[in-house]
Amino acid sequence: MSVQKMEFKTEVKELLNLMIHSLYSHKEIFLRELISNASDAIDKARHESLTNKEIIEACGEWKIKIIPDTTAGTLTIRDNGIGMSRDEAVAELGTIAHSGTREFMQALKDASQKDKPGLIGQFGVGFYSAYMVADKVVVVSRKATEKTSSAIKWESIADGSFTIGDAEKDRPGTDVILHLREEDKKYLQEWEIRDVVRKYSDYIEHPVVMDITREQEDPADKEKRIKTTEEETLNSRKAIWLKDPSEIKPEEYNDFYKHVSHDFTDPAKVIHYRAEGTSEFTMLLYVPQHAPYGILYRDFKIGPMLYVKRVQIMDHCAEVLPEYLRFVKGVVDSSDLPLNVSREILQSNRHIEVIKKNIVKKVLDTLAEMKKNDAPGYEKFHKEFGRVLKEGIHFDFSRKEQIADLLLYASTRTDAGKLTTLDEYVKNMPIAQDAIYYITGRPDENILQSPYLEAFRTKGYEVLILTDDIDDLIMLDLQEYKGKKIKSVIKGDVSLDKEKQAEKEAQKGKFEKLLSRLKDRLKDEVKDVRLSGRLTDSACCLVAEEGGLDPQMEKMLRSMGQDVPSQKRILEINAEHPVFAVMNSMVEQGGSDEQVQEYVDLLYNQALLLEGSKLKDPAGFARSISKLMAGGGKK
Ligand code: ADP
Prior knowledge:
Heat Shock Protein 90; Rossmann fold; 4 domains; 22 helices; binds adenosine-5'-diphosphate
């Protein structure tokens, strides 16, 4: 097939533009990215060779070779891995498959210069980082699974298009040839290359080699110097997770984390553990400092890398990690699994179950230890991942109390920016208080001013303030903690005082007529109207039934496209409030229907506003208020 010219997809064009024009620091990571791609390609070939021995013969000894050519001004990264067919090269190097690319580019535009390199790897746009140092990139690749020597040649000067044509190549694998820009020619120097490889790719299992030429004295003729060239391995290659933890320096742990996570900051926590006995495996796991982009999206890739006896099997093994711990990164290396393990086997494998159990235990124990011994560090963790962790209460029933112990909450008692725990909450409960109370709301709301808190404040009861979208669901799942029921202050009937309860009963008679007028007027809007045990200052509020959804939750489910039937609420009125004395006498003395109705509507609309809901007729509401203000409300 002849040489074909093709256009890059729009997002590649934009990405290349960014690579070329806005990323100037940490340019050297292009080498890490290309070596990492080469290493992945070798892993794939090796995996393939388990069932196809001819591949090993064709490819030879696995290695990645760096070839600087000072005359041509090119740097070649050569691997003898799986290679690419023509179609694969067009698809893989002409488009970006990852769905997060748009956000990535936006993030890249917004990020400060020092954060930009960290974003590159995270989104798997590694290959294009070549254009940070090269103005032209040529890729010559031959597929390892095909028997012919025909190869493909992909080429682009990042001008919006690339060409693809035929080539010859004596061995399978890929050559990525970078035509370096003048100012980036330093990457042709031996010491520069050594440095970058050691800094970023030391743990790569495959040898990263380079021909090193040395000048030596000729032993036969002292006047003469002879040149010898030898292939030297630049990386130490030791799989870090197999080393003894006592031999590993913190920097080594951190560097490896950056390799597996494509993060640019150090991890918050390292978990390195070897299990021996009926199941043998090693885990080197990390809790990151920051939540990566997309952690709340459905296509977020979950799970550590899975190795079987040092052979990489998959990039993300979701089977060993529950979703609520999806922030955990790292490596698991098993000695028990077969090398040709498939997804189906993983799903029902005893060893995988053991590994998963161990991971969950280790991670939760580590978090508990962190919470105990490093409160500021733990708070940071919680800020980033608390929302994800609490999903565990819903999905991992057997550990719900253990997970609940790890959650932090603001409350009506905590100072601004400070948080409490359920355990502390329970310890601080007055003897008379028999339940744990919480209120939900949006983070930007002034929840402390909520009328739903009035009676609790009067009683001196602490109320947890929950602002995550899923909090209400989580509390419904948790139901109780340390034998104390968990209740929402905006649901169900509240009676904090036994004496008040009796008083309320007595008042029912007094307000009977008014209550029935209210019920009658609002019969299409609310389920019931009753006297409130939770209000002290405000006139009225809307509450959900015990066990029902709170309005926050209802809105969230609707926004997710779920068909949530509209739930009628209960209107609670504060019998102590002067407005009811006025309304009561209005009703008792046969006030006009129109006036009573207007008051009832005003009350109901106020309650809607307090709940954070929209009014059906805001203009009517405003008119009534203005009328009252102008004195038209006087009898
Ligand atoms: P990522 O490696 O995160 O998928 P890249 O942009 O670095 O993203 O690479 C895109 C794709 O191009 C890879 O997934 C792989 O299929 C292919 N590719 C890149 N480099 C090589 C290589 N050296 N050998 C074989 N395939 C490669």
